[in-house]
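Read as amino acids, tokens; as here:

___
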Amino acid sequence: MRLIVVLMTFLLFVGFMGFVLTNLDTRVAVTVWKTQYPELPLFVVVIVAVFAGILYAGIIGVAEGGHIRFANHRLARELRRLETELNYLRTQPGASSRPEPDAVRETGAPPPAEETGTKRPTEPPVAAAPVYGGENGWSSDDDDVYTGGRAV
């Protein structure tokens, strides 16, 4: 990328110098508001226009850079706040002793009691992701990530 920028800058400079050398004797009349300049060399007008464009692009670049730096600062502050909140929540004890709804229970363990004191009928745990069972339909000959009844 840097090579392209250097090459483009060199080509622009060569083109500009070619324009200046071929128009050294060309004079133009320029009017700026009510002030008239009757015999101005054309290359001076072009040089002033190029520098005005560079100045304008520089001002726009500084303004955009400031906006981006401000947005990055705001996002960094938000990230620090969220990380602090996350660390706080990680250090808090659990709100209840109930397991997560999709937590895998050990085989033969009774299902947890409801808050009302009644027991749920025995059912397999609901998976949070598709489960590809090793014993019902999938071959266990090849050892890939979809065997063994693991949730994927």
